[in-house]
């Protein structure tokens, strides 16, 4: 099995665990931005340790950095940070499974952004998958009971769908930029380049959002630090998942990595049904199935 496939499956698994822990923090003790910052603040020291260990074990030196690397890494970091905030906000509007599934529109958007930003074209099957995935989003965008929406326009542009689609756009942008960042490091193996790019992104995210919290949400940083038991575990799953994502981006185009990464939906619905005891409607399940079909089309196209 290609390394990028293994890395992507691991990334999806750890990301699902991280979303679950982040949801817990959001609905119990922290604000949206506090729960978002906790992920970066607690994962950053672990990234430093992981990078140092790999440099020592592999005997490599740090890769050379190009000017384009900093641009890609910083834009990707900001996009991922804002996308994460959108997902955390969305958890308060729809159940766990639907919240994560709406964010998975990034697979569709990554294909277009990859072509525009990096010139990485997609095949005809990917275009077919875009329409299949859009149909799934339409089904998932129905608001919950109590929120009346009679038209297609209203179903698509309700607040829950807005947060989900915006998070998908921002996650897609960050994925393409992270691939661009790893491609603009010279020297070292894929894991080393992934770790360096991840460290830079995490430092930018921790510093930027930390300053925002200190300015706009007094006391929130203290609450984050007080939640170290859950936040520390979330930081570990975040570091493992992000390192796997970055490794996959170093090996394969963002569109294909994100396509396969939607295997996370399987993990998400299992957690939603078996652990959180949440119930999904028939339309939500049908929408998720269409998104999974979209994943399979793109995945098979990648192997062709």
TrEMBL record:
InterPro entries assigned: EamA_dom, EmrE-like
This protein's GO CC annotations: membrane
Transmembrane parts of this sequence: 38-57, 69-91, 111-140, 160-181, 193-215, 227-249, 255-276, 285-303
Residues covered by the EamA domain: 163-299
Membrane as UniProt keyword: yes
Alphabetical UniProt keywords: Membrane, Transmembrane, Transmembrane helix
One Pfam family per UniProt: EamA
SUPFAM superfamilies: Multidrug resistance efflux transporter EmrE
Record protein name field: Putative membrane protein
């Amino acid at each position: 099995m290609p390394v990028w496939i293994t890395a992507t499956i691991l990334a999806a698994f750890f990301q699902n665990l991280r979303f679950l822990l982040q949801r817990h923090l959001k609905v119990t003790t922290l604000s949206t931005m506090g729960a978002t910052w906790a992920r970066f603040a607690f994962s950053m020291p672990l990234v430093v340790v992981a990078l140092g260990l790999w440099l020592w074990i592999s005997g490599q030196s740090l890769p050379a950095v190009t000017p384009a690397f900093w641009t890609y890494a910083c834009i990707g970091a900001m996009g991922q940070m804002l996308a994460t905030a959108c997902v955390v906000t969305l958890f308060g509007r729809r159940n766990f499974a639907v919240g994560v599934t709406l964010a998975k529109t990034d697979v569709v958007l990554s294909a277009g952004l990859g072509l525009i930003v990096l010139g990485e074209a997609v095949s005809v099957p990917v275009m077919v998958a875009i329409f299949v995935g859009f149909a799934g989003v339409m089904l998932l965008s129905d608001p919950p009971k109590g929120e009346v929406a009679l038209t297609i326009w209203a179903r698509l542009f309700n607040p829950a769908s807005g947060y989900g689609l915006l998070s998908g756009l921002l996650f897609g942008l960050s994925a393409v930029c992270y691939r661009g960042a790893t491609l603009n490091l010279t020297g070292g193996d894929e894991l080393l380049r992934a770790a360096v790019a991840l460290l830079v992104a995490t430092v930018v995210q921790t510093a930027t959002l930390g300053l925002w919290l200190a300015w706009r949400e007094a006391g929130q940083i203290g609450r984050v630090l007080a939640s170290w038991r859950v936040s520390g575990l979330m930081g570990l799953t975040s570091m493992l998942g992000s390192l796997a994502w970055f490794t996959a981006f170093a090996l394969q185009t963002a569109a294909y990595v994100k396509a396969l990464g939607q295997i996370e939906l399987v993990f998400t619905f299992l957690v939603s049904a078996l652990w959180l005891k949440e119930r999904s409607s028939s339309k939500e399940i049908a929408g998720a199935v269409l998104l999974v079909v979209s994943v399979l089309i793109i995945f098979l196209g990648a192997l062709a």
